[in-house]
Amino acid sequence: MAFDSLLQAADDFDHTIEGLFQSDPNRITRYVVEAAGICMDYSRHWMTDAVRAELFKQLELQQFDTQREALFAGEAVNTTESRAALHMALRAPSTAAFTVDGRSVMPEVHAELDAMSGFSDAIREGARCGQTNRRFTDVIHLGIGGSDLGPALVYEALKPWVDGPRVHFISNVDGAGLSDLFEILDPETTLSVVVSKSFTTEETMHNAHRVRSWLTDALGEEAIASHVVAVSTNIEAMDAFGIHPEARFRFWDWVGGRFSVWSAVGLSVMIALGAERFRELLAGAHAMDQHFQTTAPEHNLPVMMALLSAWYVTGFGIETQAVVPYADRLAKLPAYLQQLEMESNGKSVDHSGQRLEYDTAPIVWGDAGTNGQHAFFQLFHQGTRVVPLDLWLAANPIGSPQASHQLLMANCLAQLDALSFGTTEASGHRECPGNRPATLFLFESLTPEVLGAVLAAYEHKVFTLSVLWDINPFDQWGVELGKQLCGGVLKQLKTPQSTEPQTATERAIGWIQAHQR
């Protein structure tokens, strides 16, 4: 069976975190790695040198170095769709050597980046206005999944740098969000950015047509050319919608949706922040790319993130992973990582299509600290389940009083001690056993560069885990199945039932139709 030696190491593990510190005080310096402005302290884990060596052995058995080289070489690592996964090229300098099918992609990547920069500058400076020559004050960003989660996270995280139009993110097909926006926004000063590679994504296009009607009712059909931007590859569909040729941006088949914030998918963010700050975000991600590509496993931050996850998921059968950023501006990070990790590695067959004998992706969840302390931390401290944590903490605040930040930092570090060491002085209801593993990630300030490095680190963690588990992290056939079934169900919802329901879905549809007004 795969991972026999890893499973044996887990069975034999009989240490506590407190005991590990007592027997090895130097672990506070030995179980630390740093890269691209991030310090990762994993000393508070069920980790010994022997366990770490076993995890490194698993990397070698799966030929990690070769797989990583294939990723950066632009090979078709997305095996089920015969595509490269070269999102690293989006944040690399123009001189970088990224190729697909033997051809450099850097000229077109930087041409698109320059076009984005020129367009966003024109919006921000008022050189490009709406139908009535008024400057844009607001942007409606329409997308879903990777076309929404990444840009929304970056926008919220970097709010201190927002000096352009406000951005409003609409992803859900539930119409309430757009209805609320229509009440407060002025169509004359609103730009809409529609993000859909195919320009057929049902939820996004439904919302896009609602925006289209809102604009044309107020300003006429000719307003579409100046008020709507598209990020897509479907030229015919953009023509039909009325998207002006100068308001079209693209990304490529070798860019997966959940890895796409670095591309024109991030145009709304660039409009809000400016091109310079957006390029700083790219630079931070590129620094993490270089670290991941060239650094040995024992000093490689994303690799160590992945190995810890594999140790708990595959070794111990722990099903969940919490992410708690002690930064309110990173409150959307857990939601972003839910897609990145669970859509990528939520697979049950290997590259050859054979069913796996071991667990893969954990269930990722969380919230910002200190909110989480008053919600779900009780389960961490005294619950029956062990939940490994990622805690993120800045040394310096941006836009927050120093006194508030001191209290925030004290809470984070105190929680770490409580999780690691607990208390056995009290018994029964008051006892907290400790020995709950957690990683502390430290950084100076939440700058664009640091945020870029954080997101790239998780991307590379996901890839490393996919190599260990022998799965393809770049497809999502389960998501596609739901899309395929939706059309048939929608047709049923629109057609009154004439016979008795034969399935549970038909019964639900019948109940809905009977109670609709």
Structural class: alpha/beta
Strand content: 5-15%
CATH superfamily membership of the largest domain: Glucose-6-phosphate isomerase like protein, domain 1
- Whole-number mean pLDDT: 96
Count of DSSP E strands?
13
The name of the CATH architecture of the largest domain is 3-Layer(aba) Sandwich
CATH class of the largest domain: Alpha Beta
Helix content: 40-55%
Write the layout of secondary structure elements.
Blueprint lengths: L3 H9 L4 H7 L3 H4 L1 E4 L2 E4 L7 H13 L2 H9 L26 E2 L2 E2 L1 H20 L12 E5 L6 H9 L8 E5 L5 H9 L5 E6 L6 H18 L4 H4 E4 L3 H7 L6 E2 L17 H7 L1 H20 L6 H16 L3 E7 L6 H13 L17 E4 L10 H6 L6 E6 L7 H20 L16 E6 L4 H22 L7 H18 L9 H12 L2
Parallel strand pairs: 5-6, 5-7, 7-8, 8-9, 10-11, 10-12, 12-13
Antiparallel strand pairs: 1-2, 2-13, 3-4
Written description of the protein model:
This protein is α/β, with parallel strands linked by helices. It has three domains: 233 residues, Rossmann fold (3-Layer(aba) Sandwich); 192 residues, Glucose-6-phosphate isomerase like protein, domain 1 (Rossmann fold, 3-Layer(aba) Sandwich); 36 residues. It is 47% helix and 11% strand. The chain contains 20 helices and 13 strands. The strands form three sheets. A six-stranded mixed β-sheet has the order 1-2-13-12-10-11, with helices on both faces. Strands 6-5-7-8-9 form a five-stranded parallel β-sheet, with helices on both faces. A hairpin with a 2-residue loop joins strand 1 and strand 2. Helix 13 runs parallel beside helix 18, helix 14 packs across helix 18 and helix 15 runs parallel beside helix 18. The longest helix is centred in the C-terminal third of the chain and has 22 residues. It is globular, with a radius of gyration of 24 Å. The termini are far apart. The mean pLDDT is 96.
